[in-house]
Design goal:
Chain lengths: 159, 153
């Protein structure tokens, strides 16, 4: 493939970031349940912006990644292996899509949209942080299968 | 809604997500024994020959967090066992193969016997021990049927 070599990450970095995201999303759900709609919307907007950062700049350049490198990684043993940055970057894009829909519907005044979108994104972030399960990565295959991501026009790569 | 009710709902969400995570983890890498079709290298656009004893046919995509680890594991297993070959198929450009072999998650590994017939299917990252056990049982079946001198190949 004629792509530039991909960034490689300590796999615990994205999981740490997903943990922070999960806590913030839980807070959004709480605020939207207790009627603090404006605050919920504002926090969801901030989370959406962070997802956009991760999706566009790459999971390796996410602000949470900088926190991880500065405060967490020095306290951990060196990583046993590094992983490709592409799957967590794609997962950030899935998170962006979910929170953006919630944000737009919330701004349009659809009741419950902010809380439901935050809860859905929370499930993915929690599974990533606690169980190391990348829900967004599985969605990639389903998108391929459904033809949403049409890449079938290219010749098959030799494996 | 008051704060108590909201916190109750948050705990329910947390509990449901934890159960989902435990179920997903329990299902990861579980070997399902199936008796499927015969697959040839041409079927999956593979450029290497399948193994005379068994083939570990791994389906991956470009954006799959656990595919590289599974690749390393299956490669190591194949290197240790004579006649076993690891073949990886990237579904990124071949979603039709994902449909044909009903691949709903990556990595998915099909374990083929020496004749190319699907004997087992693993969704998610497998463990070395499970793969070893499955390959052992395929080897046993092959030996027992050949010592019986079965003519139906």
């Amino acid at each position: 493939m004629s792509k530039t070599p991909r960034a490689r990450l300590d796999p615990r970095g994205p999981r740490f970031g997903a943990g922070l995201t999960a806590v913030l999303l839980l807070l959004v759900v709480f605020m939207s349940l207790t009627g603090a709609s404006a605050a919920a919307l504002a926090l969801l907007a901030a989370i959406t912006a962070l997802f956009a950062w991760g999706a566009l700049a790459g999971a390796g350049r996410h602000p949470y990644g900088a926190l991880f490198k500065k405060f967490v990684r020095p306290r951990l043993a060196p990583p046993t292996e590094l992983e490709d940055a592409a799957p967590p970057t794609f997962a950030q894009g899935v998170g962006l899509a979910v929170t953006l829909v919630g944000l737009i519907l919330g701004l349009a005044g659809v009741p419950g949209a902010v809380g439901i979108a935050a809860a859905a994104a929370f499930v993915a972030a929690f599974l990533n942080a606690v169980f190391d399960y990348c829900l967004g990565c599985q969605i990639y295959l389903l998108l391929l299968r459904s033809g949403v991501l049409n890449r079938g026009g290219r010749a098959a790569q030799n494996v | 809604m008051n704060s108590f009710e909201a916190i109750g709902l948050l705990f329910a969400l947390l509990a449901a997500t934890t159960v989902l995570g435990l179920v997903l983890r329990a299902r990861q890498g579980r070997v399902a024994h199936v008796f499927g079709d015969v697959i040839t290298p041409a079927d999956v656009a593979a450029t290497v020959a399948f193994g005379p004893a068994a083939t570990l046919l791994q389906f991956s995509t470009e954006l799959c967090a656990r595919c590289p680890g599974t690749r390393r594991l299956l490669r190591a297993v194949a290197e240790q066992r004579p006649g076993v070959v690891h073949v990886e198929v990237d579904l990124t450009n071949r979603p039709d193969l994902a449909k044909r072999y009903a691949v709903l998650q990556t990595p998915t590994t099909l374990i083929l016997d020496g004749a190319g017939r699907v004997q087992a299917r693993v969704g998610g990252a497998p463990t070395r021990a499970d793969i070893g056990t499955t390959l052992d049982s395929i080897a046993r079946n092959t030996t027992s049927s050949s010592t019986l001198g079965s003519s139906h190949v």
